[in-house]
């Protein structure tokens, strides 16, 4: 049996905890021998979302094959953030020293840093906390724009939904990618992402503007990016002229509608190629007539 012990601190984020916990719980439902347990300094644990949790205060006897995972909490930038107690630090350090794996989701990386486990190792956290993590723990190598990292039985993830990706990765390492894929399907996870995937997608990266018309056009392109799309049809959907759409779209996203569609196609093609699809098949799947355009876009991306 593999124990997965979640170490909870006050103001823990529910999804940082619930995502990985669901992965290992689903793994157990599918016949893999996992047991999830929850420990904290006190039985009652307040969460950042206001729903109180109940945890044990006694640590189980852990073996080298077990996992200790620290979910993130509300920003550690404020008043230094929560810290592990001396007893909790000792438990985390001892587990790793015995050959066990320790991990974090989001700001949980600060707890691993407090325990001295990030020194000389690669790690990551939520993109909004990376500078602070690097400042507090200068002996660590903070890798930016990654979903998760693994280094010397220390695993860290970017946070929130990426905790699911990290947990699926750990299952795949122990039981193979087929088991992880089965769990992902049960959880209705759209796609398993590798650790080197970016923390945001093109569909989100260009959505920080306030133009309703441009958002409507992006909604349309997001769904039909693999199809030929006429500028006139996009402008009609937005209720503006073609010239106005092009101007507003460029002002809002930095891209023309056609370029935005190409970015989506390229990102999806890269995912398909990473999953083993030949370049030619990936090109056809995302709407390129042949692989030449895809190769040119990939080459330009790698050179930029």
From TrEMBL:
Which keywords has UniProt assigned to this entry? Transcription, Transcription regulation
Q: What is this protein called?
A: AraC family transcriptional regulator with amidase-like domain
Q: Which Gene3D superfamilies match?
A: 3.40.50.880, Homeodomain-like
Q: Would I find Transcription among this entry's keywords?
A: yes
Question: Superkingdom of the source?
Answer: Bacteria
What is the native source organism of this protein? Glycomyces artemisiae
The HTH araC/xylS-type domain is annotated at 215-304
GO MF terms, alphabetically ordered: DNA-binding transcription factor activity; sequence-specific DNA binding
What span is annotated as the signal peptide, if there is one? none
Q: Does the keyword Transcription apply?
A: yes
Q: What does the organism's lineage look like at the top?
A: Bacteria, Bacillati, Actinomycetota, Actinomycetes, Glycomycetales
- CDD domains named among the record's database cross-references: GATase1_AraC_1
């Amino acid at each position: 049996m593999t124990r997965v012990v979640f170490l909870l601190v006050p103001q823990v984020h529910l999804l940082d905890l619930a995502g990985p916990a669901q992965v290992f719980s689903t793994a157990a439902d599918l016949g893999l021998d996992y047991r999830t347990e929850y420990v904290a300094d006190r039985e009652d644990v307040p969460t950042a979302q206001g729903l109180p949790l109940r945890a044990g205060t006694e640590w189980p006897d852990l073996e080298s094959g077990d996992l200790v995972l620290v979910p993130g909490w509300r920003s550690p930038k404020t008043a230094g953030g929560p810290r592990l107690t001396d007893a909790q630090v000792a438990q985390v350090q001892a587990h790793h020293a015995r050959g066990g794996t320790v991990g974090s989701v989001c700001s949980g990386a600060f707890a691993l840093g407090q325990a001295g486990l990030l020194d000389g190792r690669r790690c990551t956290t939520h993109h909004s906390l990376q500078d602070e993590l690097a400042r507090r723990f200068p002996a660590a190598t903070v890798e930016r724009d990654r979903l998760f990292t693994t280094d010397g039985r220390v695993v860290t993830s970017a946070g929130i939904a990426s905790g699911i990706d990290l947990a699926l990765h750990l299952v795949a390492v122990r039981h193979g990618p087929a088991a992880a894929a089965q769990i992902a399907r049960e959880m209705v996870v759209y796609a398993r992402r590798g650790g080197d995937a970016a923390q945001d997608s093109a569909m989100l990266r260009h959505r920080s503007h306030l133009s309703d018309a441009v958002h409507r056009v992006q909604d349309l392109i997001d769904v039909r990016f693999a199809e030929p799309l006429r500028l006139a049809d996009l402008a009609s959907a937005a209720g503006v002229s073609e010239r106005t759409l092009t101007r507003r779209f460029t002002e809002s996203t930095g891209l023309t509608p056609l370029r935005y569609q190409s970015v989506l196609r390229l990102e999806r093609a890269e995912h398909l190629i990473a999953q083993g699809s030949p370049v030619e098949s990936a090109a056809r799947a995302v709407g390129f007539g042949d692989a030449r355009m895809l190769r040119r876009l990939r080459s330009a991306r790698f050179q930029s």
